[in-house]
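new request in #modeling-help
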Amino acid sequence: MRGKKIRLSKSSIGQEEKEAVLKVLDKEFLGMGEEVMHFEEEIKAYLETDFDVVCVNTGTSALHLALEALDIKAGDEVLVPSLTYIASFQAISACGATPVAVEINPDTLFIDMEDAKNRLTKNTKAIMPVHYASSAKGMDEVYAFAKEHKLRVIEDAAQAFGSKRDGKKVGTDGDILCFSFDGIKNITSGEGGAIVSNDKEVIQRSQDGRLLGVEKDTQKRYAGQRSWDFDVKYQGFRYHMSNIMAAIGREQLKKIDSIERKRQSIVKYYVEALKDIEEIQILDFEYENIISHIFVIKAKDRDALREHLINDNIECGVHYKPNHLLSKYRTDYALEVTERIYEEILTLPCQYDLDKEDQNRVIQSIKDFYSV
Ligand SMILES: *Cc1c(COP(=O)(O)O)cnc(C)c1O
């Protein structure tokens, strides 16, 4: 049943994004300026949030800058689920701090707060829960735990842009949230990311930090000026977003309602088709409230199923190799649930341009494999 290759994920770019980029090129102001300012305002309006928005060049930089803004440094520890993209871990170690790998709940794949308790030390400064596959079921417990132990919370919401939690958009509530707009995330600005927070100091430090620590450079640039005389108090980075990126992001943001409908309908179709297959387990998510960046199932004989799908020219993935199994982050303790789940998870194609016909091919290939 080999048809054309079905891609796991991809960018979806229209004429609008292309024209928006051309306009920026024509203006010959490519760096950080007006477009970025507007993108930040439009994100804020879309999220209907009082929180401020700081756009940067990647989701990883957003996480790193947020941690820097909290003065997290060598000797500090940050609790983070092992089952996440390597970016979460690298952002923490980039500050000199230690990412402390924590277990997940086997049904929601969200950080397990019972295990987090075991990993708490006097050096723990923050916790980084991950919106795994856009879901953050269990986040209330993270905030209760953080309050009790006086920890800051940096939500890795890289996959969750546009999703809701407790009826409100992610980014209207909480401590610090980081989004990603990389090429295949819910919306893209080519590469890109954002820090969202209600903490004015974190916002100011992030704004300065993305521009080499130059104080109030953001305000200057948005007023069409440059900083000639300034002070720098903290380590900074070249993490700002460019006008070219923001121009793409602004067009993508205009399409988010349609992106939401499409991704939700893809997921709903998968869930309906697969939920009665005994060998497959659907994750315990509130799918109607999230925009799924990836669609993950737990599958019996995962490796063989994966091979079968690849033979049918269907790309699939494993999100993720647990970080505590990597040389740099290897732990001297086992994470049994994470290690077991790692053998079961499989990510099926889920992208804006996936049509019904392709999706039926994916579903049929799975049914063929299990002979159901
Ligand atoms: C994509 C992603 C990031 C990093 O975002 P980039 O924009 O790719 O740097 C971080 N964490 C998670 C969970 C992600 O999926």
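bot summary: The longest strand covers residues 52-56.
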